[in-house]
Amino acid sequence: MAKLSQNDKIMMWLKTNKAINPAQAFTELGIYRLSARIKELREKGYDIRTLMTETKNGEAKYATYVYVDLPNGGESNNG
Fold first, then answer.
1. CA–CA separation, 9 vs 24, rounded Å?
2. End-to-end CA distance of the chain
3. Measured between alpha carbons, how far is 76 from 10 in angstroms, rounded to an integer?
4. In whole angstroms, what separates CA 40 from the centre of its chain?
5. What whole-number distance in Å separates Cα of residue 43 and Cα of residue 2?
6. Residue 64 bridge partners (DSSP)
7. pLDDT computed for residue 2 by the predictor
8. What is the pLDDT of residue 79?
9. Measuring CA to CA, which of 3, 7, 15, 40 is 20 to 30 A from 76?
């Protein structure tokens, strides 16, 4: 069985959970550079939006990435 790429792991997560942040990517998937992987997925045509979230104490912000799936289960990638 082939090993899943980091991009494949992220897309499986997003299709199930709809959103991911860097902490989830690292703890759940072992992916450290989430923003770089999201950039690659966008270049492949996936519609992934960025929401900036502020920490509870208001001292920092981090990105939460949200997958926008097409209606009727369609995929937003080009291939």
1. 12
2. 22
3. 15
4. 11
5. 23
6. 51
7. 80
8. 45
9. 3
